[in-house]
Amino acid sequence: MTSGLRIKNLRLNVEGSGEDIVDEINLTIEPGKVLALVGESGSGKTTVGLAVLGHARRGVVVVHGEIHCGEREILSLDDENKRKVRGDLVSYVPQDPASSLNPALRIGVQLVETLEAHDFGGSDSARRDRVREMMSEVLLPTDEDYLRRYPHQLSGGQQQRVGLAMAFACRPSVIVLDEPTTGLDVSTQEHVLATIRQLTREHGVAALYITHDLAVVADLADEVAVMYAGRVVERGLVKDIFMRPSHPYTRHLVDAAPDIAGKKKVIGLSGRAPAPGKRPSGCAFALRCEMVSDECLSTFPVEVVVNDSQKARCIKVGKVVRSIFTASDEASTRVQGSPILDLRGVDAGYAGVKVVHDVSLTIRKGECLALVGESGSGKTTVSRAIGGLHREWSGSMNFKGVELAKGSRQRSTENRLAIQYVFQNPYGSLNPRRTIGDSIIRPLAIGGQSKSEAKRAVFEVLDQVNLPAAYATKFPDQLSGGERQRVAIARALVSKPEVLVCDEVTSALDVLVQAAIIDLLDDLRKNLGLAMLFVTHNLPLVRSIADEVAVMSEGRIVEFGSAESVIGDPQQEYTRSLISATPSIERSMR
Amino acid sequence: MNKVSREPRPFLDFIGTVWAMRRAKIGVVITGLICVTAAVGPHLAPFTATEFVDMPNSLHISGALFGTDYMGQDVWSRFLMGGGSILFLGAVSTAIGVLGGAMLGVVAAYVKGSLNSIIMRTFDIVIAFPGILWALLLLSMMGTSNWLIILAIVISTVPRVGRIIYGAAVAVVEKDFVSAATAIGESRMRIVFREVLPNVTSTLLVETNLRFTYSIGGIASLAFLGFTSDPTGANWGTMVQENSSAIILQPWGTILPVFAIALLTIGTGLIGDAFSRVSAGIDRGRND
User: Across chain A, which distance is largest between two alpha carbons, in Å?
Assistant: First the structure.
């Protein structure tokens, strides 16, 4: 009997056009194994994942291909049978557990419903027993009280485990997981990943794990398939892919991923993948590839066998320089910069409830201080208070000898422009009804600069963040996420600030784009002598960018020191647990 | 440095994109047709509005294309003359009401605190009474004039538009770009009118269209109740009500004005829809 998942020559098109979204997808997953499908947003990985469930989004149609889950072929089933197969033979764990559970139903009821829908278990009591069994498998309490809870009474990690329990409920043979740990804290992520690993192995489930987080892949998966512009460009065993990538794109992905195990310069890549309908006749990656030749532009690359398990879609297989995990510590004998912003005993809260206690920090000229913590640790509150966006705080913030007022309206124009804030989400921080140039020019207009001078400054600053001047007349929705974040940085830079507060500025971006933004920020810090406060939950990233690190937990700074010493040799239990919970490519490869 | 060859003309580009949509063209044609009918109609009418032509409620009368109405007046002539005042009053009252409502709604969304409460609770009180009641109160106390009719419609429009725009603006106010504007020290006025207001324009355009329809309905209802500046004159609203009781005998007296009002609504609806799609960026090309 064959089991597991086999995808054969799958192609999906944009409805009503000949344009392919994905094509020539061939993947096999053995029972009990995890295959990670990685790639940047828009590469088609979710489209493939949903196709495994026999589903295509609105506006997407299956053109040809076969998907075998065990002995059943999914795509040829009619709608009624597809519906029966879902949850029973093949199940799905979506990205956001909060929106995939029905907020109005108790979790116990939702779990029983899943079983009922597939006539699993002969009786109500058998089903209730199965629910308890599932709950214990995902390491959640099995008592009646817990099952009577509503989704909002559970934490994000618990919700995702309920999602897993639901997916494994009817003992499926294939499971599709679409970035199930995005948005979870590292310690929660660690538990969820362990649960996934255990359940797939114990029950012989073939798992398709969609993600863009390479460290998670290294930690969890057996095999990897890398997608680019709708094609699988490389696939093989995890170790081979990370240690000996055969496709230049794969190597770029690995080079762009920061790693907690060593200080590594992350390397970005400019340009973006061509969209469906705009894909060239040659290699889709050719225009971003440093090894490009005329042949790449004219011939569409076929899959080349590299070794028993590894295949790559590149005509230059064998010529890709292998990745080296750079433990290149540029000797950290730098002279400490002079203090610019000094926080002493800062408490902050919301409506009288204190969430930040006694925070003291010094931000120095030309240095990057990372403020690290899990969600709810108070790190964003501190950064917003510095930016004048959160007014309920007490204590002292001394900016070059002057006490800062609480809200930005109370601060002098000079102080306001000297401390600039870059927001997490570039999709929300730019006014969609304004041109890029119009958004960037505002701080100068407020500062009272003449129009022609300000315009010149806008072009200069666009150049600084590596965007063409012509972008000044574009609107935000004509830009990619990375480009938008560059614009947001340009807006912060245009008034020549001394302090740049970056609030999770890369968390909404793909890994290659993240690397490029980190690169940019690092250059700006060096060239302009900027003092940076880098707020993040991403510890590997801290290792790549920060000079000093402050670790926050429950509103307090629990550990402080140089990036090397805090991450390389943590002294506090909390920091140690954070670091050990963070997946690492390098550690997994050892 | 001057790599940008032409100055951006966002507004003209915007209108151009709207016009490029088929639904906008159809909408403009329909709306234009009704407006031209209302504007040119009076000069083409074979009879005057109040002239007795033949037996009331009769069809098939030579010279009267659509027969006579309940008073024996020519339906076609009254139809041609009946659009002007409704269109004029509807447009003016909608414009004033939507502008006022939008301003108040956006301001209330941005300033939290007591000003917000004052504005929103006033809206609640006004909405608590049916619009027609305000109108009757006003018109019966102060007499009937076009300006009072407009005022009556504005009173019922402002809080309704205000509530909708408030709802749309509250979501915009929480966006990071508003925080960003606050952080660099933009004035409150600028934030309200340059950051928030432009981001509710699609809601505003849809709402304008809806309110225009309601205004016409309101003016027609008032006309039926006798509140027009010219009670015997032709008016689509009055016509519908006057002739609806004889709709079996003489359908044209009702159908023509209803048809015109319906077409007008659909036409403005299509235009409003095109505006909202373009301003939301639904069909904007990603690469030029």
Answer: 79
